[in-house]
Design goal:
The complex is a heterodimer of chains A (359) and B (346). Helices cover 33% and strands 20% of the residues of chain A. Chain A is an alpha/beta fold. Chain A starts with 7 loop residues before the first strand and ends in a 25-residue tail after the last strand. Chain B is globular, with a radius of gyration of 21 Å. Chain B is built from twelve helices and twelve strands. Classes of the chains: A alpha/beta (359), B alpha/beta (346).
Chain lengths: 359, 346
């Protein structure tokens, strides 16, 4: 097909961080952490891709890599078909400018309070990005745009809010300002990194609704990072996007929100599903933790074979030796042998019930 | 369920407890009365700025200066009744940790970053004149109960542990002096959901093993719903509804409780039926007269605007501060299926 290339495309991207030995620890080898390991992902325009997983699973690193804030150790990130790091390095084969790419890919952080300059009023905070991208805009025009955007994100009366300092706003209002600031750049993709996690539960739906509403107005795609499956489901399903479940740098399962919630294929997805509180069906105290250990293994030395095998309730000998490739299963891509009937997994003996050690 | 054997054996009783930061014109805790039963897990739910953390601090007479705490707080250990607000500094010091212990959100700021975990335990035991040897044995047992490797954790500095491990080590530390009552203020808020659920499960195990009473304070109703025996909902610096967990979730009776439940992202509920609560919670300086929820309440009448509703009892052990709780039960629909429909008792 001769269609346009996808808006944003990650092609076998890996990110490795190195922990160099300190001054007094000579002799030690540099420790390497593969925060993101061989991930491919596509984001179309007007799309939502949610990344869910535990702390330290690499979802933030993957998100930052996708919007060009983190350079991948290997693999390519393409924006409108062009390698963004080639653009950054001034390759002659690219047509876009780095400034355009940067403006097109925006981020909203988890803690809105610390991403807004406490010493400046909102008007001045929001003027700064506009001055960068639209240097020709006059002061009054700039103010008009800021006011109309503040109204768009539900902050009325805008002139009153524009005159305030960040500490005079509630957490929800601060996050709206952060969203407004990202939207001023007229971006194609916004990375919302746990953007609603610091808000009260009762305010999260409202904030997600606002983001969804603005998505259709501004024609923006979202990469939505969350450790909470019910938030990811709400946001993703409304926008008809995909949820990717990450575990130790890899995507364990990716599929539509509906499919992921109601028919999880990977045992790890089921564990996350277990951890998401339900109000309706069963409010009794949950039974045992459906995992063999509580803590995530050390990412410096990830387990052999399938990375989840040390905690997986379904793990067998085969999982310790061989790493599963992503397999299509019912609309999802799943890194687990269990989705194939003929897999050697089924003839392999179950792992011994090890003592549930802590580390 | 760890419902108490002695339903009338309160470990702590609060009567008309208020906290003010000016001379009594505005309150950040407004006349709260509450019994905590021995051996129960009580969940206290409220949004930011509803006064829930102030309630926790009040229990230990630890309201930050210059707040003024009034009312009465009694604590009953096995043989004596203690009036918490009458205690002197040294008595208060032994009440804290030895009888009532507290865990806050964000373990990283509770630990001293330059001290090993072991030294935190030793210091705590020492400060309360405990036997260090016996205390450390208990510490090891507690750490193991929380699925931590005692040898590794005790030798670690706080930053060498993951967030979940730090928070579990902090819970172990809070229990090292064998307190009766454990008060936790958002103990899992900074952690991912999987770790939160795991810790809740461990807390339930600890509660049974050490016969603890627990108060768990959070903004996340769905989370504490899985753990608690009873739930109290706070709005605008007071408790508006209190009931056994199952009762509260299947027959919530305060319009605010129902709106709060409907605003919670929930895997079961149809997407279109999750909606935010209209309006904003009041600040202490402009709490509405009458029922504090009336400006946001779809059922509010003139009566609600003028008169503060007293506690009513829709069911035994269920109390709600609303004139129209019966109406609320059928007029404000919940977005998740409940086993019982509202109002099937009277």
């Amino acid at each position: 097909m001769s269609e346009d290339p996808p808006l944003l495309e990650l092609d076998t991207v890996s990110v490795t961080f190195e922990n160099r030995p300190g001054l007094f620890e000579f002799g030690d080898e540099a420790e390497q952490v593969r925060a993101v390991d061989d991930v491919s992902l596509t984001i179309e325009s007007n799309d939502v891709v949610s990344l869910v997983g535990e702390s330290g699973c690499g979802k933030t690193t993957l998100g930052k890599t996708a919007i060009g804030l983190q350079r991948p150790t290997s693999g390519t990130v393409r924006f409108r078909g062009e390698d963004i790091w080639a653009i950054r390095d001034g390759s002659t084969e690219t047509t876009q400018s780095w400034a355009d790419v940067r403006a097109s890919l925006q981020i909203i952080h988890q803690d809105p309070g610390s991403s807004l300059n406490p010493n400046r009023r909102l008007l001045s905070i929001l003027s700064e990005p506009l001055r960068q991208v639209r240097p020709t805009l006059g002061a009054s025009e700039r103010r008009e745009r800021i006011y109309s955007l503040l109204e768009r994100v539900g902050m009325n009366p805008a002139p009153d809010f524009a005159d305030r300092y960040p500490h005079q706003l509630s957490g929800g209002e601060q996050q709206r300002v952060a969203l407004a600031r990202a939207l001023l750049m007229n971006p194609d993709v916004i990375l919302a990194d746990e953007a609603i996690s610091a808000l009260d539960v009762s305010l999260r739906v409202e904030m997600m609704d606002l983001m969804l509403e603005l998505q259709s107005v501004f024609d923006t795609s979202f990469i939505f990072i969350s450790h909470d499956l019910s938030n990811a489901r709400y946001f993703t399903q409304h926008a008809n996007g995909k949820i990717a479940v990450m575990y130790l740098g890899r995507i364990a399962e990716i599929s539509s929100a509906e499919q992921l919630i109601h028919n999880p294929q990977h045992p790890y997805t089921s564990v996350l599903r277990w951890a998401t509180p339900d109000l309706g069906a069963d409010v009794s105290t949950p039974e045992a933790i459906p995992m063999r250990t509580i803590d995530v293994p050390d990412p410096v030395d990830p387990p052999s074979g399938c990375r989840f095998h040390t905690r997986c309730p379904e793990a067998r000998e085969h999982c310790t030796a061989v790493e599963p490739d992503p397999l299509p299963a019912g609309g999802a891509d799943v890194r687990c042998f269990r989705v194939r009937d003929g897999s050697p997994y089924w003839n392999s003996p179950p792992l011994d019930e090890e003592e549930s050690s802590s580390s | 369920m760890a419902q108490t054997d002695h339903p009338d054996d309160p470990i702590a009783t609060l009567e008309d407890v208020s906290v003010t930061y000016d001379d009594g014109t505005s309150f950040v805790l407004d006349g709260v009365s509450l019994h905590v039963e021995r051996g129960e897990i009580l969940g206290i739910v409220g949004e930011s700025g509803s006064g829930k953390s102030m309630l926790a601090s009040s229990l230990l007479d630890a309201v930050p200066d210059p707040g003024y705490l009034s009312g009465s707080i009694t604590y009953r250990s096995d043989d004596e009744t203690i009036d918490v607000l009458e205690l002197g500094q040294s008595e208060l010091r032994s009440l804290r940790w030895e009888e009532i212990s507290m865990v806050f959100q964000g373990a990283m700021s509770s630990f001293n970053p330059t001290m090993r975990i072991r030294d935190h335990f030793i210091e705590t035991i020492d400060a309360h004149d405990g036997n260090v040897q016996a205390g450390m044995d208990r510490a090891r047992q507690l750490l193991a109960d929380l699925y931590l490797d005692p040898d590794r954790v005790l030798e670690s500095f706080p930053h060498e542990l993951s967030g979940g491990m730090q928070q579990r080590a902090l819970i172990a530390l809070s229990l090292v002096l064998d307190p009766e009552l454990l008060v936790m203020d958002e103990p899992t808020a900074a952690l991912d959901l999987l770790m939160q659920q795991s810790i809740l499960l461990l807390l339930r195990e600890l509660q049974e093993k050490y016969e603890l009473t627990m108060i768990f304070i959070t903004h996340d109703l769905a989370l504490v719903g899985a753990l608690a025996d009873r739930l109290a909902v706070m709005y605008a610096f007071d408790i508006v509804e209190l009931a056994p967990k199952q009762q509260l979730l299947s027959n919530p009776s305060h319009p605010y409780t129902r709106a709060l439940l409907n605003s919670t992202p929930n895997l079961q509920a149809p997407l279109a039926q999750m909606r935010p609560i209209e309006g904003q919670s009041p600040a202490p300086i402009n709490v509405p007269s009458g029922c504090s929820y009336n400006p946001r309440c779809p059922l509010a009448t003139e009566e609600c605007r003028t008169t503060d509703p007293p506690m009513d009892a829709p069911a035994p052990e269920h109390s709600v501060a609303c004139f129209y709780w019966e109406k609320a039960q059928y007029e404000i629909e919940l977005n998740y299926a409940t086993e019982q429909s509202g109002g099937d008792y009277s």
